[in-house]
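thought: fold this chain, then report.
action: predict
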Amino acid sequence: LALSSGSSSPAMEQDISKRSRNSTEVVQLLTQAHQAVQEENYELAKQYFYYILQIDQNNKEAREGLKNIEESRKQKEDANWKNEEIKKLLFYARKSFHEDNMALSREFYDQVLTLDRGSAVAQAGLEAIERRQKELQEIQARQSELEHLFITAGTAFQQRDFKIAKETYSQILKLEPKNEIAHKGLVESEYLILEQGREKEN
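observation:
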C-alpha cells in the first residue's frame, strides 16, 4: 500500500532520527579532528577521521583530512631528513676547513646551499673560505720568497760576498723577525765584513 502524503512509517522516522544524530556527531568529530590537526596531533586527528568514515564512508571532508595528514607527515619527514643532512654537511665542511682542505670544504657548503639556498651559515662558510684561501696564498708566496732569499744568501756566502749576504738576511728578518737562521747569518755576515776590512788594511 502506498503511504499517504501526510504520514510516515516508524522505520522512516527512526532512519531520519539516526541520520540527524549521525550528522551532528560528524560535525563534532570534524571539529575535533581539525583541532587535532592544528595542534599537529596527527595520530589523534586520523582516529577522528577514521571514525567519521565509519559513520559516513563517503564523507569528503574526512577523506581530504586523511590525505592532508599524509602529505603533512611526508613533508615533516622530508624536512627532518633535510635538517639532519644539512647538519652533517656543515660538520664536514667545518672539519675540512680546519684541516685547510678548502676545496672539500667548499663542496660541502655548496651541497648545503643546494638543500637550503638561503643558508646564512653556508654563505658565511664560503666567505671564510675565500679569506682563508687568500691567507694561504699569501703564506705560500712569502714562503717562496723566503726560500729564494735563503738561496741568495747562501750563494753570497759561498762567493764570500758578505755584503749581499747581510742585505739578504736583513730582508729575511723583515719577513720573519724571529727567524733564528737569518739572525745567525746576519751576525756572521757582519763579522766577516769586518774581517774582510781588516784583511784589506793589512
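thought: worth noting. Residues 1-8 have pLDDT under 50 and may be disordered.
final: C-alpha cells above.
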